[in-house]
Amino acid sequence: MILFPAIDLKNGQCVRLEQGDMARATVFNLDPAAQAQSFAAQGFQYLHVVDLDGAFAGKPMNAQAVEAMLKVVKMPVQLGGGIRDLKTIEAWLSKGIARVIIGTAAVRDPALVKDAAKAFPGRVAVGLDARDGKVAVEGWAESSQVTALDIAQRFEDAGVAAIIFTDIARDGLLKGINWDATIALAEAISIPVIASGGLASIEDVKTLLSPRAKKLEGAIAGRALYDGRLDPTEALALIGAAKAA
Question: Catalytic residue numbers?
Answer without folding.
Answer: 8, 129
